[in-house]
UniProtKB/TrEMBL annotation, chain A:
Domain CobW/HypB/UreG nucleotide-binding residues, every copy: 4-164
GO biological process: protein maturation
Native organism taxonomy: Bacteria, Pseudomonadati, Thermodesulfobacteriota, Desulfobacteria, Desulfobacterales
Source domain of life: Bacteria
Native species: Desulfosarcina ovata subsp. ovata
Protein name per Swiss-Prot or TrEMBL: CobW/HypB/UreG nucleotide-binding domain-containing protein
GO molecular function, one term: zinc ion binding
UniProtKB/TrEMBL annotation, chain B:
Statement: the UniProt record of this protein carries the keyword Magnesium: no
SUPFAM superfamilies on file: P-loop containing nucleoside triphosphate hydrolases
GO molecular function, one term: ATP binding
Name the record gives this protein: ABC transporter ATP-binding protein
Alphabetical list of SMART domains matching this protein: AAA (SM00382)
Alphabetized UniProt keyword annotations: ATP-binding, Nucleotide-binding, Transport
Length: 228, 334
């Protein structure tokens, strides 16, 4: 079974882009499924169900969503294999710009949108910089110049990636994304596989539920700002 | 120049010969740089905190930097390779009936695309944009300069063939017209940014009819002014050889002049329109029906004569519109 990780800031259009690519892939006989990693609520599951796509949702709740993702993704791979899928797409929201769910040797897609502003590519960290394919959405409502500047900025921070404009509403541009998804490698297990980049880390009193503020309550992996 | 040589260069020489490298350093947060220091030493000297903030580690920062330089060199080379023609090789319509034709669109040509909503105009454009190779629902194939495009280049998304201008598009950047155009010019790696920006501003003002200042925020321009700025920008700066126009509204832009500008800049202009004045301005019209190109109509001699009449009518309407705008009365002789 092939595996692809799709990540991107909230509301960048990940689900729409996946649904559009899925139409073409399923028409050519690919049996695909989705695992959706979310934080608190997950309405996207319904959109996949309506399209007749097998879907599982994982809610991270109080945990760092990326840590939650990586501790569950291999079980999801096993679920996908058991369900007889040809392709499993994992969708996770990059809730902080330091998120990085991409795994070595697993096709990595990052979805960003033109409306987020031309400085956004520089602000997003490894989730964008280590991706193989960067999908840029919402190009139909901004000027040609802004689209070109945005794509250029993406190329600056990730010169190796393919940068593909996709319209999540009409599906325009999703053909080339489908071609990329078809090239994803087969995965038996993610045991011993490695992340492309370390995840945001912390292990401090706040991770464990502390709510009070003050030096006495701060224990663990801490970093203080330089305000001098 | 090998990559290893490049890493031995002093930073000053690098910035001199590859000015765009400045962007890489600025994306790195502009850490203090000794101009005599070699690039390799500079990259090796980035602190772990800085690297972490960049989302890179010690080996990937070197790889990323080299990839960046190669990418910029490719973009610069691309700028100089002209696309003279785009050919659509017919596939089939929605019912599978063969679309038995081949249409070549040449630089500096304007073609109208006509047909009711849902006929398949968007599909044709999507085929061109994705450089279809018999793998879209229409089965069409697209040739660039009479040849099929390179598959690797196609997948990289590097050839952005189609620039779009539609009525739904807006400026969303919070910048003045001058800053905005400068940003676009820089991203196109043009040599004379200030010159190009001035030229576009002048062209846009001429198209809009109502002057605006270079300091005006792009989001504060009137509908006609922003449309004029978008057209002038696409004509002078866009990387894409094909311009798709989804109607140009009548208000605030000299439409014939706008089309003339795009054609003069050697663009291939495809225009979805049912306005006779614009449709007849083109050399041909592609008639789209049931997902296929049903016919290609050359503008006939009779239609050209009609176009002259339409031009006169349009000029009269413009005069009347302007008088209304100025608060004047109209008379039968205007």
């Amino acid at each position: 079974m092939k595996l692809v990780t799709v990540a991107g800031p909230p509301s960048s259009g990940k689900t729409s882009v996946i649904l559009r690519a899925a139409e073409g892939l399923r028409a050519s006989g690919t049996h695909l499924g989705v695992v959706k990693f979310d934080c608190l609520s997950g309405d996207d599951e319904k959109r996949y169900q309506q399209a007749g796509i097998p879907v599982k949702t994982g809610l991270a709740g109080a945990l760092c969503p990326d840590h939650f993702f990586i501790t569950n993704i291999d079980a999801c791979v096993q679920w996908g294999k058991k369900s007889g899928l040809d392709l499993l797409i994992s969708e996770s929201a990059g809730l902080c710009n330091r998120c990085s769910p991409h795994i070595r040797k697993v096709l990595a897609v990052c979805v960003v949108d033109n409306l987020s502003g031309v400085n956004t590519p520089r602000k997003i960290g490894p989730m964008l910089k280590t991706a193989d394919v960067v999908v840029v959405t919402k190009g139909d409502i901004v000027s040609q110049a802004e689209r070109e500047v945005f794509a250029f900025r993406v190329k600056q921070v990730n010169p190796k990636a393919a940068v593909l404009p996709v319209n999540g509403l009409t599906g325009q541009g999703s053909l080339l994304l489908q071609r990329h998804l078809e090239t994803a490698r087969d995965v038996e297990t993610l045991q011993d596989a490695r992340l492309r980049f370390s995840m945001p880390s912390a292990l401090c009193s706040y991770c464990l539920g502390e709510t009070r503020i003050g030096p006495d309550c701060q224990v663990g992996n801490l970093k203080m700002m330089d305000l001098s | 120049m090998t990559d290893r040589d490049l890493l031995q260069w002093p930073c000053a020489r690098l910035l001199d010969q590859h000015p765009y490298a400045r962007d890489f350093f600025s994306a790195c947060g502009n850490p203090a740089m000794d101009r005599q220091q070699t690039l390799g030493d500079f990259l090796a000297g980035l602190t772990p905190d800085r690297l972490d903030a960049l989302g890179m580690d010690r080996t990937t920062v070197v790889e990323q930097f080299l990839a960046f330089i190669h990418q910029m060199q490719r973009l610069q080379a691309d700028r100089d390779t002209a696309i003279r023609s785009v050919t659509v090789v017919g596939g089939h319509d929605k019912d599978g009936r063969p679309e038995d034709l081949q249409v070549t669109l040449s630089a500096g040509e304007m073609i109208a695309v006509v047909g009711p909503t849902g006929a398949g105009k968007s599909l044709l454009l999507a085929d061109i944009e994705s450089l279809a190779q018999g793998d879209t629902p229409s089965g069409r194939r697209i040739l660039i300069n009479d040849r099929p495009p390179d598959e690797a280049q196609r997948l990289s998304g590097e050839h952005r063939l189609v620039a779009q201008l539609s009525q739904n598009m807006n400026f969303v950047m919070d910048l003045s017209a001058h800053e905005f155009l400068s940003l676009h010019a820089e991203s196109r790696l043009v040599d004379n940014v200030a010159g190009v920006v001035d030229q576009i501003l002048q062209t846009a003002v001429a198209l809009a009819g109502e002057p605006f200042d270079a300091k005006t925020p792009v989001t504060a321009l009137s509908g006609g002014q922003s449309r004029a700025l978008m057209i002038a920008d696409v004509a002078c700066l866009s990387a894409s050889p094909i311009v798709l126009i989804d109607e140009i509204e009548n208000a605030g832009v000299d439409r014939r002049q706008a089309l003339g500008l795009l054609v003069k800049k050697e663009k291939i202009v495809l225009m979805a329109t049912h306005d006779p004045l614009l449709a007849l301005s083109g050399s041909r019209r592609l008639v789209i029906r049931n997902g296929g190109i049903d016919a290609v109509l050359d503008t006939s001699d009779e239609e050209r004569i009609l176009l002259q009449q339409l031009d006169t009518m349009d000029a009269r309407l413009t005069t009347l519109r302007n008088r209304i705008r100025q608060g004047k009365r109209l008379s039968l002789t205007h």
